[in-house]
Amino acid sequence: MKLNDLKVGEKGKILAFNSGAPDYRRHLLMMGATPGSNFEVVRVAPMGDPIEIRVRGSMVSVRKHEAAIVEVEKQ
Q: Least buried of 32, 36, 66, 71, by fewest C-beta within 10 Å?
């Protein structure tokens, strides 16, 4: 399942990042969204972009195309 498939209020765990997008991957890692991290989808903008998640106590906004590379497990 991908991060952009989750709805507001749903929680999950980051499993991995798809290859082919090293810049997005590095950006997410620097913000604390690392494999094994638990998160919660806090907000989604009206048009679906960006998506705001709470990860490691911080609020992180990611674009829809960035969220599409994040493999997650819904909890």
A: 36
Residue 2: count of CB within 10 angstroms of its CB: 12
Say how many domains are in the chain.
1
Q: How far apart are CA 17 and CA 35, in angstroms?
A: 8
Distance separating alpha carbons of residues 30 and 9, to the nearest angstrom: 24
CATH of the domain at 19: 2.30.30.90
pLDDT for 49-65, tens place per residue?
899 999 988 899 988 88
| Length in residues, the chain | 75
